[in-house]
## 1
Amino acid sequence: MTGATSALFIMDIKGQCLLCRDYRGDVSSLQAEHFFSKLLANEGDIDAHGPVAYEDGVAYMFIPHNNIYLMTAARQNCNAASLLLFLHRLVEVFKYYFQELEEESLRDNFVVVYELLDEMMDFGYPQYTEANILSEFIKTDAYRMELTQRPPMAVTNAVSWRSEGIFYKKNEVFLDVVEHVNLLVNSSGQILRSDVAGALKMRTYLSGMPECKLGLNDRVLLEAQGKSIKGRAIDLDDIKFHQCVRLARFESDRTISFIPPDGSFDLMTYRLSTKVKPLIWVEARVERHARSRVEILVKARSQFRERSSANDVVIEVPTPYDATNPRIKTSLGSAKYAPEKDAMLWKIKSFPGNKECMLGAEFKLPSIISEEESADRKAPISLKFEIPYFTVSGIQVRHLKVIEKSGYQPLPWVRYITMAGEYELRLI
């Protein structure tokens, strides 16, 4: 077998080795320290350097975290992406055990660190990276253990993300389809950027080893099955699955089949780079009166269906940095001046669809500043909101089946939520 890493090192910010685990005996810690110190001296800012470097027949892959660097070294032709992913998973496991991963927490827990490194990688090959499985047989206070514990079955079978013997009196599955809308509009009202970043978030409380099958309104799947496309079908793109999903099955017939981990996890993430109609449109007009006061008129309009409603809407409208004596009136919700942000915060608890509301504000300005010095700020209007039971992409869960040998019938719960991501309008 080829492609294994030779050793794993944890370095401090000066390039000194704090901990190392030698798996193959062909890269020493002194060699790694010499390379990393030279890299620090040559580059100055190590974060500006890429995560992969090569010197004297050794490939180094490293990532920063707080005041340490995690690095692998390999003489063989290895998969760099796989090892970088392993380093990120290593950070997650350490944080699970120590809360915060930094130099001090490593020094306080070096015994547990070596135990984890021995279990997570074997002879240079990544093995188990699920923190909840590792925690079943590697305890933080491992030095107190008197009896030798057997590793859980999850370590010895193909499903390393789920333990056997899980039991619930009430078997339930919760699936949240969450979409974040990113929008950027220029001062002329033209959309410069619009995309949707979505995620299928699951919480499973299921007994045994259930087999789950999820069906979406995927255009490719419906066309392959020869079904008529009723309603809206979507083209999934930029998909990223949790490791529990059988990728070969998805590539062959677009079926999302998996044995889920216990508890919460992200089953799938996706991105749609489509032209998105602004869900909430905001217009603003600013009128300056000499050097004494300024009036701001803001109009917000919801552009989604009437039976839907946006909750917890926050519209942040920039104001002059020297504004004083605010007088604000709104037709819906409430607004206040936030001088620490140089902005007005307009909060609407529930904003129904296809509705328009207004905000009017007047601020006093100091007369000692000239017209040139008191130019308007160019900060954009930003929005935060949440629309339940609604998705921009039109994604739908057609079915969610759970099959387990005991034959229980779980309760599936599915809900849809659309939220504002980076939602900005440069209209002032």
## 2
Amino acid sequence: FAELSACVFLNENIPVWLYSRTVATPFVPFAVLELKCLAGIMVTASHNPKEDNGYKVYWTNSAQIIPPHDKNIQTSIMENLEPLETSWNLELLLSDKLNDPYDQMVELYFRKLQANVPRPFITDYNASSSLRFVYSAMHGVGYPFVVKAFECARLPALIAVPEQRDPDPEFRTVKFPNPEEGKSSLVLSMQLANETGCDVILANDPDADRLACAEKDAKGEWRVFSGNELGALLGWWAIRCYREQYPDRSLSDCYLIASTVSSKMCRSIANVDGLHFIETLTGFKWMGNKSVELLSQGKTVLFAFEEAIGFMFAPTVLDKDGVSAACHLATMACYLRATSNQSLADKLNELYDIYGFHCTFASYHFCYEPPVIERIFKRIRNMETEGVEDQRYPQSIAGGRFKIADVRDLTTGYDSSQPDGRAVLPTSKSSQMITFSFENGAVVTLRTSGTEPKVKYYAEMCAQPGQRDWNGSKATLREMVDSIVEELLQPKENNLTPRSD
């Protein structure tokens, strides 16, 4: 696919950089930026089932495409469904307009990654750390790049899961090649960590733009951190690294970014520490393009994340990057162990004490019939007989116990919290997304996946700093989520299949 894509451009006399071997996804947007390319294509099905094929497209600014470019490309596809005969001519791969950027880009990427890790952290903590890390590439491409990242930061050598270390399109050891699935995808990693006495597991998805992490607790049980929990830790760490490297600079021009379905923990951190926080639509294409906008204004983007274990640490790559995230998370773990004998979980609890406990639940149901999804969301929009004309959303759940304060529908463009009733964030009729804000401070979003047959839900309860009834917050949110699923999604009536674990 990559070679055929290259030939299409070469046919039009457009020079092409084509990586000669498999690379982690971040290396394509990185090359677009560094080589000043017009666009970039990454051929990958990412973490999707093995039957899927796909590719990501990056624009001239090295961020993923957004409107109008995506719509224009789609229109062009529909107008040219039959490939040109010349597009199959692979002899063009011998053209002098085709070059391999691998050595140049790999060297530059790791030089810049190393520069983003404060030097004292490398020499004082990483180089002497007794921590060891088990790593899984999930049958993908990440292993050689994460090994190189660890070498650059003088982190302890990785212990790789041998069955999952090298690329294998059959994904023979996992049902879903997606570390976002949690423990079910990390079984071999946990076995190896137990055998080798390792306390921390790191795992990339097959194209290495996402990062999962698990840590063994004092009882010997494995805790798989959610994307929101890792986002809180890495958000704090991005600020800590910036302060270490630039102790005399103010944080007043610094930004943290998260998608709208992700935890608001970074917002709480920004409010206390004097940074800015920006929320975007779901997907790194929006966070990448927002970063481009901020950087053009002379602002500093420290960190961006989405709950689906995607992290952008410093704008070296304007997309999620599982390689750099692995390096920074491991460095943080070594730093915490050396300076305060804390685990990652200990640090997360400390952050909750300082910035307020943020409790989140996120999951999904499979739905393989698009008309059923349409029916579910149409019903949600027309549940009440009273209300604003054509906007009859539910006003409460659980028999009226939890009242809804505001509704934002980014499919229709409605937002009851705005004076004119119009949503501020961009809207799209091609996907479903409704957010309910409750009077008790909880926020729940229902949305469809852009790449998989799923109806997803995201819920969060945000406590104030010093509020200690964390179990009470969890119990209330759990009850609310159960009510939302049963009353709005109606899994039995709609034949929805719940997530397996």
## 3
Amino acid sequence: MSESENDLEHLEASEKKPYAWTLILTVCSAAIGGTLQYGYNISIINAPTAHVQRFVNETVLERWGRQLEGYQITLIWSFIVSMFSLGGLVGALLAGPMAIHFGRKKSLLLNNLFVFVSAALALASRAARSFEMIMLARILVGINAGVSMNIQPMYFGESAPKHLRGAVALSSASFTAFGIVLGQVIGLREILGGESHWPFLLATNAIPGLIQLLTLPWFPESPRYLLIDKGDKEACTEALRRLRGCGDLSREMDEMLQEKAAAMGQRAKGPWALIQDRGVRWQLITVVVASSAMQLCGNDSMYFYAYYVFQEAGIQAEKIQYAAIGTGSCEFIAAVTCNLLIERLGRKVLIMGGYLLMACWAVVFMVTLALQEKVSWMPYLGMTCIFAFILSFGMGPAGVTGILPTEIFEQTARPAAYMIAGSLMWLNLFLMGLLFPFIVSGLGTFCFVPFCSVCLLSALFIALFLPETKGKSTLEITKEFNRRNFKGTEQQQYQLGEVLRSTSL
């Protein structure tokens, strides 16, 4: 029996040990106040749209004695919604320094301060007759989302064992999708989506933050952060013991010690240092392409078309809110399925397959738009395309992209890599919000041609340049990237790396 088969048996046996419960509870506690919060805040803002717009108009009338034009109300509402993206960009830039100075767990705990202040502002906005307080609240929840979207996958990837690293890190996407569905349900008119309850709806994001604040302190910090960043071997061993149970920790400790030795004397890198570092050039290019494609692939645009397609399919306007829950449920089901498949199929297959399927469904969807008024059953095919497109996105790109910086960057570069990836994600989200109306008006039924092109090019890039990371240590993945980073001098680089590690040890 080969060594890899022996390792597999050992790992499969270790999955049955009681450490799984500590790891699962750690993941749940971190995600409830993290990416679940992100998904929840994306969806709850949709339900009170008409109520908040009416509140804005009434407030202006009280202050200045004039009614706003329709386009002015829409403009103010657009600012309220887009403040979330602006806050997300600020949060992404804060995440790196926070992860370095406070650690992964403490950063997530401190991050809840933004949510609590935001909830207080949203709750008091109507009584204070101030729609500016809602804008500020959206900026603060955006900062919270930007921080958690970067630090949470880092925390998960560094805390999970190698054979579960992908599945644990991918749970971030599952909680995001669940947060979207939860927000859609809480935002129903029968619950908190009514006109009298919208301040309470916008303030409910304090509840997940409070749950995290009460539970996360009981769980361990990232073992890799404790050993490699803080140099505290005793605390690292204790954290590993809690997360792994009573199994043999020597193999994992050896891998972390090798990574620590390779990073000996290096300080945590900033984004500019990372950009200048030839040793991570292809890792950085991969993250830039993958993070940009996440927002430029058209998934959010498909949500925009959902209301129109549901209406054309004959669904009554007051019932569309229930049909919209189906779109969020699709993404949640896809994320959970991806979580189950990632350690079997690997990262490349899921990302490539997701983008290729999205490209196919985008073509079919454009056909349905063109024939919407000519063929009676086309709206139903359009509904199918919406669900299939979202499922394809959730099955691969939505979840796997977020864990790439954890897997392909070493400890000292990881926070800066997440800063760059997060900044690009939020900038592209803001860019798409601005450009999408012009794309629709300019291209009409062919509006998904740019998105289809992005999906195809992204799948091609992943196929050519991303090595499979499933079941590999950070040092093994780095060696594979070094074949491109140091093309022509790879043998010398590898030999030098081995000498440096053995000397340090």
